[in-house]
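W.,

You were right to be curious about this one. When I first looked at the sequence I had no strong expectations either way, so I just let the prediction run and decided to look at it fresh. Below is the sequence, 97 residues in total, followed by the output.
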Amino acid sequence: MQITMDEPQLRSLFINRVKLSPDKSMCTVFFYTQEGESAFDKLMSILLLYKPSLRKALSSSIPSRYTPELTFKYDRTYEKQKRIEDLLEKIKEDDQL
């Protein structure tokens, strides 16, 4: 929350999910933005600038000896879901004709 206040460009990003590796050494944060993957790629440089402070905040909030390395990725799940829903709607419309 504090980062979005400091950096208004990041307000369009939403965290969809977080995946922790089995050995807990890597944490992948999946982001989504309505502007698409190209907009996310432009914001990636800003996210990478905040990565050290995010890891520090994470280390103080989790009771673990080691803090996982953070990686940021664009989440295509919503786009895939939307495409499937559109296909299903098209099938329904074709069946009604």
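Here's what jumped out at me. Strands lie at 14-20, 26-32, 69-74. And, maybe more interesting for your project: The longest helix spans residues 37-61.

Coffee later to discuss?

I.
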